[in-house]
Write a structure and sequence with these properties.
By secondary structure, the chain is an alpha+beta fold. The chain has one domain: Beta Polymerase, domain 2. It is built from four helices and seven strands; from the N terminus they run H-E-E-H-E-E-E-H-H-E-E. Strands 1-2-5-4-3 form a five-stranded mixed beta sheet. A hairpin with a 3-residue loop joins strand 4 and strand 5. It is globular and about 35 Å long.
Amino acid sequence: MDDRTLLNTAARLIAEKKGERIVAIDLREDSMPTSFFLIAEADNPVHVKAILSHLMAEIPRRALHREGLTERRWAVLDYGDVVVHVFQKDAREFYDLESLWSDRIMNDDAFGNGAPPAAPIDDTPTAG
């Protein structure tokens, strides 16, 4: 599974579990050891766990690194070129990762604010 397919698959799987505010950040031109961040939020720790469990069950490869699975306030699944962040709402607001790379946020029209994407993620950065 290539990184773009993984990115789109993870976004779809998060949406299936009602993850909200799904955002992809293109880091390929930055000095980051990954190509993409996929960020989403959940209502509570049980919701975070449901999203993570769904991702780990449905993505055919194992994450290279997993963090926050016990606390479930901010959990990370690192697949190498794609790193998935699932936050509880208050943690997402506090850490505000999107503001660090606001010029690298990918077109998220396909997400429909938590609905399954109708089309693959457009990797044209939004104007900002």
